[in-house]
# Entry
Amino acid sequence: MLALWKVCWNSGSRFMVDAQFNDFAKLRRVKRIGLTGSIGSGKSTVAKLLAARGIPVLDADAVARQVSSRTDVLQAVSSQLGAEYVLSDGLNRAALAQLVFANPEARVILNSIIHPRVREEMARCETQLESEGARAVVQDIPLLFENKLESLFDAVILVDAPLETRVARVM
# Structure
């Protein structure tokens, strides 16, 4: 059973946490906590609050940007999707965005190139943090449930906010 924490923002910008803990978490020295939520939900605020309390937070989006500039990724994108999607200084993000939003097969290919490398780098960072004495590590992963990654964590924090609040934050 996975522990799930749901963070709900109320109108006063305070949050409530509903948490359930899992005995499975006792098997590992470092506690792995996933953090997810839709755009404008307050996920970044929760990440900052956790980091301010000394809990390391790994950002999957930042790692993806870092990984996507590696030579092996650029070569894989060029060979599997086309040379027009790679520029001299990295990925042609605008062209890739157009491609993957119009072509679901291309999205699967791009994700198969990027996602394993992101997970590998996140695991490497987590191992490093554990060797430095971290007792818990949060991984901020926007599409955690959509990519069926919840089983990788001892607990997941799902950040949510009312739709009107999320829309106002994004606009």
Q: What stands out?
A: Strands lie at 3-9, 15-18, 31-37, 57-59, 86-87, 90-91, 136-140, 155-160. The radius of gyration is 18 Å. The CA atoms of residues 40 and 52 lie 20 Å apart.
